[in-house]
Design a protein that fits this description.
The complex is a heterodimer of chains A (419) and B (259).
Chain A (H helix, E strand, L loop, with lengths): L8 H15 L7 H13 L41 E6 L2 E2 L10 E4 L11 H8 L5 E5 L9 E8 L4 E11 L4 E11 L2 E11 L4 E8 L6 E10 L4 E9 L3 E10 L5 E10 L4 E10 L5 E10 L4 E10 L6 E11 L5 E10 L4 E11 L2 H8 L5 H18 L4 H14 L12
Parallel strand pairs in A: 1-5, 4-6, 5-7, 6-8, 7-9, 8-10, 9-11, 10-12, 11-13, 12-14, 13-15, 14-16, 15-17, 16-18, 17-19
Antiparallel strand pairs in A: 1-2, 3-4
Chain B lengths: L1 E10 L2 E11 L4 E5 L6 H9 L4 E10 L2 E2 L5 H7 L1 E4 L6 E5 H15 L7 H14 L10 E2 L5 H15 L3 E5 L7 H14 L5 E5 L3 H6 L4 E6 L2 E6 L2 H9 L2 H4 L6 H4 L4
Parallel strand pairs in B: 3-10, 3-11, 6-9, 9-10
Antiparallel strand pairs in B: 1-2, 1-4, 4-5, 7-8, 11-12
Helix pairs in contact in B: 4-5, 5-6
The structure holds adenosine-5'-triphosphate and magnesium ion (MG).
Adenosine-5'-triphosphate (ATP) binds next to strand 2, helix 1 and helix 10 of chain B.
Amino acid sequence: MSGENALNLPEDLKARALQNARQATPAEALAPLRADALAALEAAAFPGRKTEAWKYTSLYALTDGHLAARAEGAAPADLPVLSEYRLVIVNGRLDETHTALPEGVTLGRAARHLDGLTTPFAFYNGAALDDAVTLEVAANADVAAPVQVLHVAAGDAPSHCNVRLEVNLGSGSRLTLIEQYLARGPVLTNAVTAIRAADNAHLTHYRLQADGGDSLHIGTLLLQQTGVSRIDSYQLMAGNRLRRNDVRAFLDKSGAELNMHGVFVARERSHIDNQLCVEHRVPDCTSNQVYRGLAGEKGRAVLNGRIHIHPGAKGTLAELSNKNLLLNAGAEIDTKPELEIYNDDVKCAHGATVGQLDAMQQFYLQSRGISAAEAKRMLSLGFVNELIMGLPDQAVADWAQPWIAAELGERPVADGEAA
Amino acid sequence: MLEIRDLHASVAGQPILKGLNLTVKPGEVHAIMGPNGSGKSTLANVLAGRDNYEITGGEALFDGKSLADMEPEDRARLGLFLAFQYPVEIPGVSNMEFLKAALEATRAAQGKEEWDSVTLLRKAREACKQVDLDAQFLKRGVNEGFSGGEKKRNEIMQMMLMEPKLALLDETDSGLDIDALQTVAKGVNSLRSPERGIVLVTHYQRLLDYIVPDYVHVLSGGKIIKSGGKELALELEQHGYGWLTGGQNGGNDKEDQTA
Ligand SMILES: Nc1ncnc2c1ncn2[C@@H]1O[C@H](COP(=O)(O)OP(=O)(O)OP(=O)(O)O)[C@@H](O)[C@H]1O
Ligand SMILES: [Mg+2]
């Protein structure tokens, strides 16, 4: 298999990405986007050791050669069903046999040029797309049942797929979107999701990334609140070999409100890197972010929460809270709020902590006959319980509860590692 | 059921208990009084198995088994219960979930029949009622935001459900209003039985009007320096500890400065 060279990894990745992009034969609807994205990719540099935004995340895993092959595996038979309305995208291509959409939501197979993408992976995504899915929610459509979009990636050997989802909420519309990622095997999912909300639109958004193990995920979530809209986003993430999420939100019309909630868990040797950036570009918008992270064994998690309040964005309310729990000494979490505020008339609060299990709480539980391992599990569950209990859709809550319980269960202690 | 012989123990390396003897037989109620810092909570924590509370000499046997190297959960499963002087808040873990885990673990270990969730809920509600705690407290995080008195009642509520063989109550009366004191005393009295031992740590003779002890001990400077019947508590109430400790405060802090 053709691997990439670790020494020149950024250059090698770029060369490989460009080669793939130039060979791609996209559908006609994707051609204009592809030309834009290719130009951006040509101008971009892939991150190396010294790239600040990738300080904690090495791309070394990609020396296995993921970019050299496209994922071709078959989707597993037992795909999770969280709604009667769903789309299944396998290795970046829509599997039309599953498609069911509610009234008010129409499916398109195009993609538009997106402002606000930053990573070379996002450019590569646009430059080498095989397919794209767009959901248009009609103005004033009040869609009661959730729409589940399942992104499946499967392969037995190192390979990758590019997946792209765009959702446009018309004015006065209402939608619940469940984005779920499922990878099997050593596959890199290179994802871009872009959501645009017009005036009086309300989106409840879930981003479920429970695919752990040897899969990789590099994704961008772009939220564009072009109207006086409200987005409530819930992001649940398990660590895998490499998980990197860039979330970028633009509050572009006064009165827009964004709420983001996230839980991330990195156990064993897994990795999660969250790069959040909320752009307040106009006055009187509100953003509220609450993230909780856990890491155990040799797990590694990162959260960088940037809040950028532009000079004209007076009356901004922006909050970010990120509390983290280390389950043992070998785990690591790096969290950093990053505020850039260019006017005085704002209310901005942020807090980030990294702590350990409380010995007194643990003793209290054990003094009631609860084993040390169970006490640990109860306390770590308790740490994220509020967010899990706060999931507004029953189908998602029913999925999330066993997921988090399993994610926080006991793990074998690796060699020479303190408990 | 509890045999403590010449017990020496340190907290974080600091010797606190210095040759303590105490025997509790089934059916007995013992009260331990003594100045602040004399080692009462240390004794309770040593018996319950808290980290960093280390037995350095002598022995503590519970039903003939040495507690020295036993995990806290194993002590609880054998039927030892500590009502904490300062109950711990655990946000995110509901009281009910906590009780369920505790009762599952201890009842299974003690060969008692398992309670299904309906039975458990019914029992928990009854126990709440007995200590005058609204059943809503079952849904809240363990001790989370509870008032001082509510925390103490929550301890007794747990004790009533767990039906321990030996209950250690560390200042359960502190911070209780007059009515709550009677409620808690009633709860404790309802657990008095020929098979069960109870050790009450208290500063106030008043509690002993409601829960009449068989023995009263004075713990000072890490040892029991006097034992007697319930009339000893009345004497202490009148005269303080000075006549027993020879003017020393009996706490550990002064003595240990030379160590
Ligand atoms: N972690 C610790 N490190 C050092 N000294 C400690 C520690 N915990 C307790 N001590 C000391 O041990 C001594 C006994 O404390 P303990 O809590 O047992 O007293 P007590 O008799 O329960 O007092 P009170 O009536 O105030 O509750 C005190 O001098 C206290 O400061
Ligand atoms: Mg005490």
